[in-house]
């Protein structure tokens, strides 16, 4: 089976690629022209250079958090006395995809795609790609399934303040997390 990974040079992506290397999957990774891809190639991935052609669902809000904050929250929850059964939402900030794109563009100096697809056109495209995927029995291109795009369009806002109050967790601001990640790429 072929696996297409976007973000393969990023923090989570490098760990994912390292793990997928141990499987029988044929790996394909999208990487920017400026990305260092040696580790992807060492893992046997076929690297496709390019960029996303358009921005989509820029007004939809989603929760974001640095992966280290998630790890810290898990340890703090485990270590907290009489904490069995407690649940925590670990969220630094709720941001729109448009805000995330703009922040990444500002940090990296990379221009955003000029084309911003209307939500209705994005959902229509997802229907077409999902229909095609069903015909060829493969996942939709760019993971643009109807379910995924509907979820992204709907968005999600989460309050992570319980972890701050009860666990003493201090979240890294998302801009700082993105700056750190861009610096590593």
By DSSP, the count of extended strands is 5
- Assign an overall shape: globular
The largest pleated sheet is described as:
3 strands, parallel
Order of helices and strands: EHEHEEHEHHHHH
Q: What is the terminal separation in angstroms? A: 28 Å
Q: What is the residue-averaged pLDDT?
A: 88
Helix content: 40-55%
As laid out across the biggest beta sheet, the strand order is: 1-2-3
Strand content: 5-15%
Radius of gyration: 18 Å
Compute the number of helices: 8
Structural class: alpha/beta
Low-confidence stretches: none
Q: What's the layout of helices and strands?
A:
Elements: E1 2-6, H1 11-20, E2 26-31, H2 38-42, E3 46-49, E4 61-64, H3 67-79, E5 93-96, H4 97-108, H5 119-136, H6 146-154, H7 161-167, H8 174-184
Parallel strand pairs: 1-2, 2-3
Antiparallel strand pairs: 4-5
């Amino acid at each position: 089976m072929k696996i297409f990974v976007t973000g393969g040079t990023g923090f989570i992506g490098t760990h994912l690629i390292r793990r997928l290397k141990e499987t029988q999957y044929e790996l394909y990774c999208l990487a920017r022209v400026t990305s260092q891809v040696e580790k992807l190639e060492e893992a046997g991935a076929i690297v496709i250079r390019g960029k996303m052609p358009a921005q989509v669902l820029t007004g939809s809000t989603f929760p974001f958090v640095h992966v280290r904050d998630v790890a810290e929250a898990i340890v703090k929850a485990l270590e907290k006395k009489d904490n069995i059964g407690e649940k925590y939402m670990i969220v630094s900030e709720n941001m729109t995809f448009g805000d995330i794109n703009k922040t990444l563009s500002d940090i990296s100096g990379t221009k955003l795609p000029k084309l911003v697809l209307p939500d209705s056109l994005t959902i229509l495209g997802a229907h077409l790609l999902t229909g095609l995927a069903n015909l060829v029995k493969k996942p939709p291109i760019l993971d643009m399934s109807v379910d995924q795009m509907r979820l992204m369009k709907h968005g999600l806002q989460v309050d992570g303040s319980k972890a701050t109050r009860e666990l003493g967790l201090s979240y890294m601001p998302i801009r700082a997390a993105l700056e750190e990640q861009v610096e590593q790429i």
